[in-house]
Design a protein that fits this description.
Length: 467
């Protein structure tokens, strides 16, 4: 009987169930829209309903049930966004809803916490930058506002572990999720005793770590019935979606990878990282790689979100991207002197310069492309300094990789080839590769990845010899 592995992917906009075969090909998929909810205490606050997420997974699994029944389901993994989680009692019931990374309630908590926690020291220990949605500030908010719940709590479970508990009845901490919390010591590979002590958090609040590929437990009958899946299927640890996207994209060690979408996230998989230097680079962070002993330093900034905004300003909604880009491609490099500072979220100097009465919408767009590309070049230099390597090429994934003009600008500015991956589902592929290893179907995740046929398109710097 043909084999497949199922990945349950909880994203901020969609919940998905995707099954893959041992060659990494998708054999079934279904998606249901996902959304946070307003909190009862304050409609401006955001939280996740775990019950609603589980019901959405049930809808997805039932939708592909007929196809799955023709395969032997070898295992299941869960991937999610990072940082979010909740306090639970001994039975795994939530003591308080899952505070969403979109919730503004923790902004003031982060600002107040800087009096107790040095941002530079926090980032040196954890690698994680100052973001108000970090797990640390959620736990501090609960300590300040609901100390009774912390006293009653049996454990803190990250959102992937909440889902895994619903599947298996086991309480665990996914390794890659812990690395997003701003409470985990990268060098020691455990939760930081110093940070937890300052926060007034007991280390025992966090269940035992499980690593990518570890067996958490088996799919329990109640959960199996709800999902329409056979009971007893092994549930394999995965965790934070970013790490599995890197591995699933085929990224090697010391290879620069750019995930290009509304935000661009430039990262690498490396064994060397100078976490003390991260504080000097705005937007820099470092997380745990899917492979223990490796790290994922990176930088992030808004990218395609800027381009989408410009398009909405100057073109009608029914104007195709091909039409927009054909107009932009007719302009020379330098956009006839029009330039753009693309830091729309964090700079009072953001916007265009060099605008004249002859400036067209295409000039504004071209200036944005070139401004974003210059920012990428600066960020790659920062990444090379942080991770102590020299990029020989750039692996590009995500929706932004479909912009051929932008790809060529990147290759020209960086002076290295840009390698564009055709495969779009890198997160679920990466989780499945670890899953094949965890179920004993592959000798390792790397061996499982060797069965995948990757297809790339290359953009070379103009004027360079490509032989």
């Amino acid at each position: 009987m043909k084999k497949c592995f199922l990945v349950l992917d909880c994203g901020a906009t969609n919940v998905r169930a995707i099954a893959l075969d041992p060659d990494g090909k998708i054999v079934a998929r279904a998606a249901v829209a996902n959304a946070s909810e307003s909190a009862a205490e304050n409609p401006a606050w955001h939280q996740w309903s775990l019950d609603a997420i589980m019901q959405r997974f049930a809808q997805c699994c039932q939708a592909i049930g007929a196809v799955l029944s023709t395969y032997r389901l070898c295992g299941i993994s869960v991937t999610t966004f990072g940082v979010d989680g909740a306090l639970v009692d001994e039975t795994g019931e939530l003591l308080y809803p899952v505070i969403s990374w979109k919730c503004p309630r923790t902004v003031a908590v982060m600002e107040n916490a800087s009096r107790r926690f040095s941002p530079a020291e926090l980032q040196r220990i954890t690698g994680v930058g100052q973001f108000s949605f970090n797990t640390l500030y959620k736990v501090l908010w609960l300590r300040e506002n609901r100390p009774d719940l912390l006293q009653r709590a049996h454990a803190w479970l990250f959102i992937s572990s909440l889902i895994n508990h619903r599947l298996t009845g086991k309480m665990t901490t996914d390794f890659t999720m812990a690395g997003t919390s701003q409470m985990f010591d990268l060098a020691q590979q455990r939760f930081s005793e110093a940070i937890l002590a300052k926060a007034g958090i007991a280390p025992s609040l966090f269940p035992a770590l499980v690593y990518p590929g570890d067996v958490i437990g088996e799919l329990q009958p109640v959960a199996a019935a709800r999902l329409g899946l056979p009971p007893g299927v092994p549930v394999i640890s995965a965790g934070h979606d970013t790490q599995f996207a890197l591995f699933g994209a085929g990224a090697g060690i010391d290879e620069a990878v750019l995930s290009s979408g509304t935000w661009e996230i430039l990262m690498a998989r490396t064994s060397r990282v100078n976490t003390a230097s991260l504080i000097h680079y705005p937007g820099a962070t470092c997380e745990l790689d899917s492979q223990p002993g490796l790290f994922n330093p990176g930088t992030q900034y808004m990218a395609s979100g800027v381009l989408e905004w410009i398009r909405s300003l100057f073109w009608s909604p029914d104007t195709s991207w091909d039409t927009v880009l054909s107009q932009v491609a007719e302009l020379p490099r330098g956009a006839d002197g029009v330039t753009m500072n693309t830091q729309l979220l964090d700079s009072p100097l953001a916007g265009w310069q060099g605008v004249t009465l002859n400036t067209t919408p295409a000039h504004f767009y071209r200036a944005a492309l070139e401004g974003l590309t210059a920012r990428l070049k600066d960020n790659l230099g920062a990444l090379e300094n942080i991770a102590q390597f020299t990029a020989r090429e750039l692996l590009l994934v995500g929706g932004g990789s479909r912009n051929a003009l932008w790809n060529q600008l990147k290759a020209d500015a960086l002076g290295i080839p840009v390698k564009v991956l055709d495969e779009g589902e890198t997160t679920v592929l990466g989780a499945a590769l670890y899953g094949w290893w965890g179920t004993g179907e592959a000798a390792s995740a790397v061996a499982a990845r060797a069965c995948v046929e990757y297809r790339y398109r290359y953009f070379y710097p103009e004027g360079k010899n490509h032989a």
